[in-house]
Design a protein that fits this description.
Length: about 400
Amino acid sequence: MRSYRTLLRTPEYAPFLLSFAAYAAAQTIGGLALGTLVYRATGSPLLSAVSMFGPQLAQLLGAAFLLSGADRLPPRAILTVISLAFAAGTAVLALPGLPVWAVFVVLLLQGLVASLGGGVRGGLMNEILPKDGYVLGRSVFNMLWGMIQITGFATGGALLALLSPRACLLLTAACYLLSAAVTRLGLTARPPRSTGRPSLSATWRTNALLWSRLRRLVYLGLWVPNGLIVGSDSLYVSYAPAAAGTMYACGALGMFVGDLTVGRLVPPALRPRLATPLRLLLAVPYLFFFLRPGIALSVLAATVASVGFAASLVLQERLMSLTPDELAGQSLGLHTTGMVAFQGIGAVLAGTLAQVTSPATAMTLMATASIAVTLTLSTLGKREERRPGVGGDGERGALGVLGVADVDGAG
C-alpha cells in the first residue's frame, strides 16, 4: 500500500485517527499548561520537567501488572475508558489550591492507566490495516501526532497568554471527552486478540518472550536515544519560557517532515540503513546549546534534530516483522511503555542536571549521552552479527536497523 487515498479509505482508519487526534491535542495543550503551572508555582526546572514527562515513569509499574491486557481486553472499550479517566484526572488538576504533591499523585494514577494505551492502540491499528499498509499507516499516525503537536503547542502557548493554566486544563479535559466519544461511536467492538485473563504472570511471561536476543537491541534502539533527547526537550520551558511553545511546535514540524520522508518517499530497501544516521541527527544539534544560541537558532536546532525521530518508523517496522500477530499489542505496548518510561527518566535526569548546572548545559550533556548510546548499540549490533547461529534473514534484518548492513541491501 503506497497511496494515502487507499489508506484513508480503509474502514475505521479515519475515526481511529480522529480519536487519537483529540487525545493528542489534550496531551500537548495539557502538558504545556501543567508544566507552566508547576514552574510558576515552584520555580523549579526539575519539577516542571517531571510534571510534563515524569508520569510516563509510572507506566513502567503499569506495564508490569497490566500490559497483557493489551491483547486480552476489547480494544474499543479500553481506549474509551482511558480517555474518560484522563478527562477526570485533568479536571482534578485544574482545581484551585491543589498542592504540588497532589498534582504528582494524579499524574502517577494517569500514568498507570496510560500504560495500556500504546499497546491497545498499536495492536488495533495492526488489525485495521493490511500488512503492506503498516509502515505507511504508522507514518501517517506519527505525522498526525506531529501536526497535533505543532498546532497544540502553538495553541497552548496562545491560550496561556490569554487564559490561566487551570482554564487550559479544563479545555484539555474536554478534548479527552471528545476522544472517548469518537472512539465509542466510530470504532467497531472487537474481541480481544488473545484468550485468557490479563494477569501479572501472563504479562511477565510474554514480556520475557518478547525480550529475546533478536528484539532486545531493537527495543533499546527505540527507547534510549529517544528518551535522552526528550529529556532535553523537557527543558524548553526553563531554557526559554517565552518561546517554549514555539520550540515545541517547530520540533513537531521537524518530526512531521522526518515521518513524511521516511514513510512515503524513502524506498523500503533503503529504510534499514537510515536508523543510525537518523538517531545521530536527533542528538547532534543539541550539542550546540551550551553556547546558548538565540531563540531563532534554538528553534532551528530543535526543528532539524526532530527529523531524527523518524528512526522509530524503521525500528517499529522491524519489530513487527519479528513479532507474532497474536502478540502485536503487547509487543507494541512494551515498546511504548519502555519509550515513554525512558522519556520520563530523561526528563528527570535532564531536570536534575539543569538544577545543578543550567538548562543549556543539561541539554548538551543529554545529547552527548544519546550519541554515545547510539554508537554503542551500532557496535553491539555488529558483534551480534558475528555470533554463531546468527545467519537467517530475520536475524540479519534485525541487525540491519541497528547500524549493520541489511542482508537484502548489502552491496
